[in-house]
Amino acid sequence: MIDIKRSIDTLRTPELASSGRRKKMADIHYLENPLETEELMEKLCPPVRNWFKDKFDDFTRPQKLAIPAIMDKEHLLLCSPTGSGKTLTAFLTVIDNLVRYELDGKLEKKVHCVYISPIKALANDIQRNLIGPLKEISDNYLPDRAQEIKVGLRTGDTPQNERQKMLRNPPHILITTPESLAIAITSPRFQPIVNAVEFMIIDELHSLVPSKRGVHLALTLSYLDTLLTIPVQRIGISATMEPLETVAEYLVSSGGDEDGPGTKVNIAKISGARELDLDILITDPKFSDLSVMKILDKNIEAIADLISSHTTTLVFANTRKMTENIVLRLRPHFGELVARHHVSMDK
Questions:
Q1: Are the CB atoms for 149 and 138 separated by under 8 Å?
Q2: From CA 59, how far away is CA 30, in angstroms rounded?
Q3: DSSP3 helix / strand / coil % (the chain, rounded to 5)
Q4: Which of these, 2, 72, 13, 46, lies nearest to 253 by C-alpha position?
Q5: What gap in Å lies between CA 297 and CA 308, rounded to an integer?
Q6: Is 49 helix (H, G, I), strand (E, B) or coil?
Q7: Less Cβ around it within 10 Å: N or C end of the chain?
Q8: Under DSSP, is residue 187 helix (H, G, I), strand (E, B) or coil?
Q9: Dihedral, CA of residue 321, residue 322, residue 327 and residue 329, to nearest 10
Q10: How confident is the prediction for the chain on average, in pLDDT?
Q11: Is the pLDDT of residue 136 over 50?
């Protein structure tokens, strides 16, 4: 396991260590009591509430546990399995706040939320959990002349002319990477549009905390804190993180006062344990006596049966050639539903 604790220690300067002065440890609280559906619904403004009711049957457990803490303006670390609605959990309160500002005529041209991810390929996740919901709420649940809630993307690939437009007409929600944020906030022209950021969402924390990128991001957030008119609320999300207390300290590492209480941070942890259904299939009792081609034929029949009985199936092969052979033999069964992808798996 990667030594996350050692990465956190690198954020403490030698001067502080030698003098015995260190920032207070975070005041960590585990969330254990999820809010009931109706009570949580009532916390949302009518347009967001109506959209959610029409879109989903109910909140997920992570949402019932985490959203109330986010609405109470508290720092939060959310750890829950993939597919449990983590990203929407983080964005729902942001969307609700911005819709309220719009309804009250108080939606300003400035960045209200910064979403940081170490991964540039965010299109599907952001479309499903942010841009899609904003468009649906705007089209179906807000007045016709409602001001648009804008989302902006700034990465290393963003053209210079788009960056200039962002300065003149800032998005309400900024999607960025650690490195792009570090560069942006050193610009005197960029600083005024982020000096009143309310929400800081950091995704994929498990890949940031134990790395140099994580140390760099912590320093960037510390510098950003000096530019803010009010302290920003931090929300960290990931599917796999251990030890959680150390990651929580990282999340609020630049906050707090060495002479005062540690910064309070809530942890919402949802177990990712799932029932494992594992089978080893021998497609013929005389397996060792058959030729390679006959074994492949029988294996293809078994794979085709498994694909037919499931919604999604991933088939792994050892070589590029074998991948091509399997796809070629499955095409008569499933046509263009079968797709190939060549990649080497990380150890």
A1: yes
A2: 20
A3: 45, 10, 40
A4: 13
A5: 17
A6: helix
A7: C
A8: coil
A9: 110
A10: 86
A11: yes
**What's the CATH code, domain 4-269?**
3.40.50.300
Token pair, residue 56, equals 């989903």
Q: How many angstroms separate the first and last alpha carbons of the chain? A: 13
Q: How far apart are CA 248 and CA 237, in angstroms?
A: 10
pLDDT in tens, 4-42: 554 445 444 333 333 444 455 789 999 999 999 999 999
**Angle subtended by helix axes 61-71 and 86-103, to nearest 10:** 40
175 Cβ partners below 8 Å, 6+ apart?
115, 117, 122, 126, 151, 152, 153, 154
Kind and range of the H or E run holding 330: helix 320-334
* Cross-strand partners of 233: 199
Distance CA 93, CA 289 (A): 62
Ranges of beta strands (E only) in the chain are 27-30, 75-79, 113-116, 151-154, 173-176, 199-202, 233-238, 264-269
Residue 239 CA, distance from chain mean position: 9
Which has the closest alpha carbon to 295: 325, 316, 331?
A: 325
Instruction: Give the length of the chain.
Output: 347
Instruction: Check residue 85 and give its pLDDT.
Output: 83
The residue among 238, 7, 230, 201 whose CA lies nearest residue 113 is 201
Helix (H, G, I), strand (E, B) or coil at 103: helix
Measuring CA to CA, which residue among 284, 278, 344, 283 is closest to residue 316? Answer: 344
Taking the domains of the chain in order of start, what are their residue ranges?
4-269, 287-337
d(CA 112, CA 96): 12
Q: What residue has token string 């089978």? A: 279
The answer, yes or no, to whether residue 166 has pLDDT greater than 70, is: yes
Q: Which residues, 6 or more positions from 91, have their beta carbon under 8 angstroms from its beta carbon?
A: 115, 129, 130, 133, 201
Instruction: Report the distance separating Cα 53 and Cα 30, nearest Å.
Output: 28
